[in-house]
Amino acid sequence: MNPHPDDTAVAVAGSDGAQPALAPPTDPAGSPAARVRGARKVFGRTVAVDLIDLDVPAGSVLGMLGPNGSGKTTLIRMLLGLTRPTAGTAELLGHPVPDAAAAALPFVGALVEGPGFHPFLSGRENLRRAATAEPLLTGREIPAAVETALERVGLTDAAGRRYRGYSLGMKQRLGLAAALLVPRRLVVLDEPTNGLDPAGTRDVRRIIAELHTGGATVLVSSHLLAEVEATCTHVAVLQSGSLVAAGELSRLLEADTSGLVITTPDVDAALRTLRGAGATAFLDGDGAVVVADGGPPAPEIIALLVRAGVAMYEARRRRPRLEELFARLTEDTP
To answer: DSSP for 166-228?
Structure first.
């Protein structure tokens, strides 16, 4: 995802005169790293994306969620200029895409729909070929950049092996290394943990955290909701080509908060006491007592349990997991 720049790119002379260095896009402060407005994509009679408005906030880690066929990959391809919208507009680092994509793409690393490399070349040789297409790398910088990327994704020991002998997880790692050959302002990862073992999944989580700490924006699509909840600051949920929810993950979860969760060793006594006071109380899947909204306020519930001699480890507002929120958003959408 790193074509050579055309005359829309801004360039300045490199210090060694070898290859010009590109100046980063000068998008206004506070503008999103990527955005679509009224985005629609139709393939024949199939509407893959239907009138979506979405901002990817600069500096965020945005998780794009949705069942298979929800339009995630098509939307990502439109944002990267890989496919032209049937209707609507897309911008990448302040530049309209696909028309001015070459001005932004050198500052974007992407792994979309799985990596594609030459099967009879080694991982290192494939990565060197990819590095030669990087406008931000001079020839003398390529060897060090390749080795750094290989080490970062844990492929140093396998770098000399032919790509055709790589496992699915190793191929994913090499694709991720290609996306990280140079520092990026935006990194787009489409199902980056596909085929990875738990150690590889932890590596991806670590890399995403490093990118975020370094100020980069990360857009990641994934079916692993626990990973999204652990790594993402924002989410966008798609269903049948439509955007059903988007925003800061913490706010979306807090907006869906309901009830009080009480952790106690005296479950039976707590349930008797609460129900006797007219509260709706039940056990959740983790064995905690949940008190539904609509009954006595939280301070009265806690005081009631204390007076009844019920021991408590914790009392907190109920906050659903992303898995619950995702199921609720998608199960009722046609």
So the answer is: --HHHHHHHHHHHHTSS--SEEEEESTTTT--HHHHHHHHHHHHHHHHTT-EEEEE-S-HHHH
SS3 state of residue 107: helix
Q: Which helix (H) or strand (E) holds 149?
A: helix 142-152
Instruction: Find out whether the peptide bond into 183 is cis, omega within 30 degrees of 0.
Output: no
In whole angstroms, how far apart are CA 205 and each of 108, 126, 157, 200, 214? 19, 24, 21, 9, 14
Residue 92 has pLDDT above 80, yes or no: yes
Q: What is the 3-state composition of the chain as percent helix, strand, coil, each rounded to the nearest 5?
A: 35, 25, 40
For 46, the 3-state DSSP assignment is strand
CA–CA distance, 161 with 180 (Å, rounded to integer): 20
pLDDT digits (tens, 9 = 90+) for 116-172: 899 999 999 999 999 999 998 888 999 999 999 999 999 999 999 999 999 988 998
Is the CB of residue 296 less than 8 Å from the CB of residue 304?
yes
Domains (ranges, CATH) in the chain?
Answer: 11-253 (3.40.50.300), 258-318 (3.30.70.100)
Per-residue pLDDT tens over the stretch 204-240? 888 899 999 999 999 999 888 888 888 899 999 898 8
The pLDDT of residue 233 is: 94
Question: Quick one: CA torsion of 257, 332, 76, 124, rounded to 10 degrees?
Answer: 80
Element holding 272 (H helix, E strand): helix 267-276
Distance between CA 193 and CA 208 in Å, rounded?
Answer: 12
What span, in angstroms and rounded, lies between the C-alpha atoms of 52 and 233?
20
* Beta-bridge mates of residue 89: 37
Work out the mean pLDDT of the chain and round it to a whole number.
Answer: 83
**Residues 300-328: b if buried by 16+ CB within 10 A, e if exposed:** ebbebbeeeebeeeebeebebebeebbee
